Amino acid sequence: MKNVVISEMNKTNKAFKTHTLAKQGSPLQATPDNLYKVTVDGVELTPKNASFKKSKGHLLVEKDGELIVDLDYSKSGTAIDLLVSDGWVSVENIDTTAGIASTTGELETADPAVDAGGDEDESRSTALGFGGLGLLGAAGGAAALAHDGGDDHSAAPGAPTAPVLAPASDGGAKGDGLTNDNTPTLTGRGKAGATVTVYDGATSIGTATVQPDGTWSCTPTTLLGEGVHTLTAKQYGSSGDLSSPSPPLTITIDTVAPPPPTAAPTSYVDNVGAVQSPTSTAPTTDDTTPGFNIGSLPSGVAGAVLYVDGVEVEADYNNGVLTPVSQLGPGAHTIGFGYADAAGNASISSPTMSIRVDTPTQPPPQPAPTTAPTSYIDNIGPEQNSKSTAATTDDPTPGINIGTLPDNVTGAVLYVDGARVPATYDPTTGAITPTSPLGGGAHTIGYGYVGPNGTSATSPTMSIRVDTTTPPQPPPTAAPTSYIDNV
Questions:
Q1: Which of 128, 181, 257, 393 is most buried, most CB within 10 Å of its CB?
Q2: 3-state SS record for 381-417
Q3: 451 contact partners, CB below 8 Å, separation of at least 6
């Protein structure tokens, strides 16, 4: 069932009261001279977001195809017609014996003559549309009601719009009317240059001037007490005439925090590193955003807050776990938590648990070999050697002798001219051989180790020149001394 609240205002003395339906769609006996506004789950219904239909002395208010409330005028004893202005419902006596007992119809919409807060031609107070039933603009509705009462409002400004809680003062869920700010800032719209007075019931709590863009903002000069308050606004025109009141804003002031938890968190969720646990009690963790297990929230508690070293920090609560949004710094911390209510009030911290955040430091780099290779395997050409130290070779893939790898080393890499190149290490020969042929010319050759801390830089280097060109055949050293004559 939706939360249905009907606000009722006496048009004569401006007194307010509210009705809460025990059952959605229930009838409410209506008084012809009063105004009514219907709110569903905190949203005011108007002809823009709901349907207003009259049927046999009743006004049926529907939203999304559901009957919300039945305003019953059938016992008023007089023929009436209905007026609706921005969701405020009233009735008007009409000169007819037919009344509305046998008519049904849906409100028709007419464009407002002016924006909220402007003046309205009294001729617009005539109800528009079906059977004299219609929708007037915000100011037009005010003029129609004034006309019904017989007063001349031609010089008075229209009513300002209903006050609204400024976002910074809306401590609960947005739009629920619940706040922990007892001097909440209120905003609204009115006639540029007019002076707006805000009332808590019949008591003035502050004034503001409507800005050129039609907006006003007012912060009460006195504290509002705990509980429900019905706030309205009126504006004075340049001639000093006072408007009728705006539609009301009902808010609840709640500045009392819930009692704090009595026990400290005893475990946390650790999702980082080699040792992880959903209920860790270890005094040290490498998880910089551990989720603290605080359990289910008690009845009446809307949320939880996290205290780190006595300071409230932003945190997310989910399924009994409260997790900081930002990382905890390294070192020791005290961790507590508190309860929050729907108005945004947070309790003080529970008793605390201690935890130390110790993130692993970057391991030192793998040590590089300290000596250069001194020989190589040459398997090409007329001069081959498994431990060649010649400065030049015709083998483009010489095997560089680096020996047996140390115990803590798992592999080797080859560096040619300072750059790592693909190579294969043979543990039998102790040599590392480039996969691709080296280019012709001079090269520096080094090697590195692969171990638990990664790959090392290069060792000191040896120099070697690769020359794969074929040398020219040397000329004979003696002249010919004879010849064969066959003729």
A1: 393
A2: CCCCEEEECCCEECCCCCEEECCCCCCCCCEEEEEEC
A3: 366, 367, 408, 409, 410
pLDDT of residue 57: 73
Q: Which residues pair with 393 in a beta bridge?
A: 466
End-to-end Cα separation, the chain, in angstroms: 133
CA-to-CA dists, residue 152 to 14, 128, 247, 307, angstroms: 18, 21, 21, 61
Q: Please give the structure tokens belonging to residue 439.
A: 């280019």
Q: What pTM, to 2 d.p., does this model score?
A: 0.44
DSSP strand pairing (392-393 vs 462-466): parallel
Contacts of 245 (CB under 8 A, 6+ apart): 9, 14, 159, 199, 232, 233, 234
Confidence of residue 66 (pLDDT cuts 50, 70, 90): confident
206 within 8 A of 219, measured Cβ to Cβ: yes
Of 188, 189, 205, whose CA–CA distance to 197 is shortest?
Answer: 205
Q: What is the mean pLDDT of residues 212-238?
A: 90
Which residues on adjacent β-strands are paired with residue 208?
A: 196
* DSSP H stretches of helix in 247-360: none
∠ CA 163-166-171, nearest 5°, is 115
Most confident of 108-112, 140-144, 477-481: 477-481
Using an 8 Å Cβ cutoff, are 277 and 270 in contact? yes
pLDDT category at 472 given cuts 50, 70, 90 is low
Report phi then psi at 394, rounded to 5. -100, 10
For 78-137, the DSSP string reads S-EEEEEETTEEEEEE-S-SSTTTT-EEEPPP---SS-TTS---GGGGS--SGGG-EEE-
Asked if residue 449 lies in contact with residue 369, where contact means CB atoms within 8 angstroms, the answer is yes
pLDDT at 475: 79
Quick: pLDDT tens for 260-289.
Answer: 999 999 999 999 888 899 999 999 999 999
- Find out whether 200 and 184 touch, Cβ atoms under 8 Å: no
Count CB neighbours of 28 within 10 A. 16
User: Does 162 have pLDDT greater than 50?
Assistant: yes
Q: Which residue has the tokens 């909440």?
A: 184
Using alpha carbons, select from 274, 458, 283, 251 the residue that is nearest to residue 358: 283
Amino acid of residue 204: S
